[in-house]
Design goal:
mainly alpha, single chain
Length: 197
């Protein structure tokens, strides 16, 4: 297995760790380091999420630079992105930061794109990520990074309403890009829905 594929797998393996720090942790011991981590758990989750996101950037660059692009790599890269985003957004729903309706829109888009990719694969075509899909992923990652930093921003700026409003705007932008990229993907690949005679 080449390095880009290992980086994609690393991104997948980091998902439970990121989720662990997003979800509430209860700790009542006297270890100062653990107490610090628990009291700043969203910041730790954000740091881990950024590291995971960087593996997405590096696996693609390495694959292109050293001609290590494979069908497995295209599959793993896309799968890791979807798993990371959906897992973190699911955790946000659980802590009541975002509505499950927003998550549903994003998940439905990913199912639709995956379905189109399966139809394409049956006809011998393996689809790599398109630019609009990369823009969608970027807006999602920016929104998530910000939402994970909200508790820190609230401590620093002491204006919870402003901080959360900015988070809401960023998240709505990422949902809009998710819908636009999904519709673009659908319209450009309608030929895969045509029955062969």
């Amino acid at each position: 297995m080449n390095l880009p594929n290992k980086l994609s797998l690393l991104r997948i393996f980091m998902i439970p760790l990121v989720m662990f720090f997003i979800l509430p942790i209860s700790y009542s011991g006297d270890n100062s380091f653990i107490s610090f981590v628990v009291s700043n758990q969203m910041f730790v989750a954000d740091l881990l999420f950024v590291i995971a996101s960087l593996t997405d950037m590096f696996d693609g660059k390495i694959a292109r630079k050293y001609n290590l692009i494979t069908n497995l790599g295209k599959f793993l890269d896309s799968l890791a992105d979807k798993m990371l985003i959906i897992a973190v957004l699911t955790a946000f729903v659980e802590i009541n930061r975002i509505s499950s309706w927003w998550l549903m829109i994003i998940v439905l888009r990913e199912f639709m794109v995956t379905g189109i990719r399966m139809l394409a694969a049956e006809k011998g075509t393996v689809m790599a990520a398109k630019m609009i899909g990369k823009i969608k992923t970027t807006t999602q990652m920016i929104a998530i990074i910000y939402l994970l930093l909200e508790p820190t921003f609230i401590k620093i700026f002491a204006h919870e309403n402003i901080v959360t409003t900015v988070g809401n705007i960023l998240f709505i932008i990422c949902v809009i890009m998710t819908v636009i990229s999904g519709l673009d993907y659908l319209m450009k690949n309608l030929n895969y829905f045509k029955e062969e005679k």
